[in-house]
Design goal:
The protein is mainly alpha-helical. Helix 3 packs antiparallel against helix 4 and helix 3 crosses helix 5.
Length: about 100
């Protein structure tokens, strides 16, 4: 597997279609994985913490830098934050602000 240098909307679409299950994607014969799905999951977990109000401003700033280093554009950045927010809603975490 040779991951792409940048995370794109198309890669996020595939990640979501298969629920982040890289083996299911490979078993479906969809071709080689184009980005490290574990890295996507890691970023989404961190976005979850920020969106749930469980992270410091410094943590968010660091996360913003990490995301900037891997996304292809602002659309992908916004999509990561939206997916992370959806995970907060689905989890039932009560956000305290």
């Amino acid at each position: 597997m040779k991951p792409s240098a940048k995370l794109t909307v198309a890669i996020l679409d595939e990640f979501e279609e298969f629920g982040g299950d890289m083996l299911a994607y490979i078993d479906a014969g969809r071709g080689p994985v184009k980005f490290d799905w574990d890295r996507i999951d890691e970023l989404l977990s961190q976005v979850f913490l920020v969106r749930a109000g469980l992270a410091s401003a410094a943590f968010r700033s660091n996360l913003d830098m990490q995301i900037s280093s891997v996304v292809s554009d602002d659309t992908v950045r916004a999509r990561l934050w939206a997916i992370g927010g959806d995970r907060v809603v689905k989890s039932g975490v009560r956000v305290v602000v």
